[in-house]
User: What shape does this take?
Amino acid sequence: MKKLRILRNNKNWSQDQLSKKSNVSQSMICEIENGRTNPSIKILKQLANALGVSVTELLEEEENKGEVTKYNHIFYDGKLSIAN
Assistant: This one.
């Protein structure tokens, strides 16, 4: 999730700092930022709260800032899979 890395870097936070502020493990943040896993809704909320943004903003693509990107949301096992 490219936007997570952008928002974290805008605050000059390391993954470890975001981990401590969001109560999400650093390894999970790394996996999410590198697109190797999709976060659960609970984790999305924790990350968004720590970063001071809405979940919608966290899911927005940077080039479409101010305009919500349309996604197809697929839920399985409590996790959110996002497909364009």
Q: What stands out?
A: The longest strand covers residues 72-76.
